[in-house]
Amino acid sequence: MPYYAKLWAEKDKGIRVRTAESLLRLRKQLGEEIPLRADGKLLLATWNIREFDSGKFGERCAECFYYIAEIISRFDLVAVQEVNEDLRALRKVQGILGGWWNYLVTDVTAGSSGNRERLAFLYDSRKVKFSGLAGELVLPEAKNLKAVQFARTPFVCGFQAGWTKFNLCTVHIYYGTAKKDDPRRVKEINDVAEFLEKRAKSYGSQPLHPGESEKGEPENLVLLGDFNIFSPEDVTMQAILKHGFQVPEEIQTLEGTSADRKKHYDQIAFITRKHRFQSAGHAGVFDYYKSVFRDEDEDEYKKSLMGDYKQYKAWRTHQMSDHLPMWVQLQTDFAREYLEELAKGEARGAVV
Fold first, then answer.
1. What integer is the mean pLDDT of 61-81?
2. Nearest in space to 257 (alpha carbons), one of 326, 167, 332
3. Contact 169, 135 (CB under 8 A)
């Protein structure tokens, strides 16, 4: 990987050695837990990278950016939440990843609840193409009522991998009170899921081509990000599912995405065309604390980096995050199925 050359510029030999050793452990863990990137399949992930990089808790140490880039590099497309107004941290990771990695970001959402954050997509342009569709989701006004907008405006972008086109909507839902059913949180999840369901169905209500009478199917749509869901049994999760979104079984059975694995903050849900753009059967939550900033590394970091910070496990979440990335492998090559449908006289429209 070309970005390792940047590590050589680190003047402190001890930091170079520690970072290299940690990267070796991280690469081994990634290789064991995440499938290799492959043609006809898409590795999609979502990751809330805590305060990236607001400076509220001091700047991240240099080695963190190598670990974050190493993790992102194992996927084809990653939705990132909590990107700060200042984009230097995101650009630093992009620089380490390589010039073929591109990003798309929102503007910051005005107001205190927006926390001067952006939402972003990072993608490997060798595998994934940006379709040109990009927009922030704004709710329409209800009858004689002004809609209450999102604390952080959801971000919708269109992409294509191979023949398969799909739209992603990433969110960072309002947290509010530390309880599982905060009313504003429930409303935000319900509003975004309902809005997207109507959007997908409206696409499916149109003819496939001008002059045709047969209708199309819903567009491939993925809703992902930080929903601040405590448990899959909570009303917050049901607010997604009741609007036609489906969560593959391999995602449903995963442990939580909070650093302590107790909360299911992050989710990936789908509305897709029949027999198109489906899970390939592999998903996971990647716990990088098994390889970097490990429990057994506490004494070393206390001596060199923590300063007056008292709690190591809290401090390391400001270096990496208090969220773990959730990922799923998707099937994007349906050429054989489409040809079989054509051979039977059943196929309509394009493969995508």
1. 97
2. 326
3. no
- Spell out the alpha helix ranges (H) of the chain: 13-33, 62-72, 88-97, 183-204, 235-241, 249-252, 298-304, 312-319, 335-343
Q: What is the pTM of this model?
A: 0.92
Is residue 252 classed as helix, strand or coil in its secondary structure? helix
Compute CA 130 distance to the chain's CA centroid, rounded to the nearest angstrom: 16
What is the Cα–Cα distance from 37 to 23, expressed in whole angstroms?
Answer: 19
| pLDDT for 292 beyond 80 | yes
Write down the pLDDT at residue 1. 52
Q: Which residues pair with 166 in a beta bridge?
A: 159
Calpha distance 102→91 (Å, rounded): 10
Which run of H or of E encompasses 50? strand 41-52
- HEC letters along 77-99: EEEEEEEECCCHHHHHHHHHHCC
Positive or negative torsion for Cα 14, 71, 257, 317: positive
Dig out the tokens for 87 from the structure: 């984009």
d(CA 312, CA 257): 19
* Whole-number pLDDT of residue 71: 98
Backbone angles phi, psi at 229, to 5 degrees: -85, 130
Of 246, 284, 46, 270, the closest CA to residue 164 belongs to 270
Cα Rg for the chain, rounded, in angstroms? 21
Question: Are the C-beta atoms of residues 231 and 286 closer than 8 Å to each other?
Answer: no
Structure tokens at 83: 């990107």
State the residue for tokens 């194992």: 74
pLDDT in tens, 311-339: 999 999 999 999 999 999 999 988 888 78
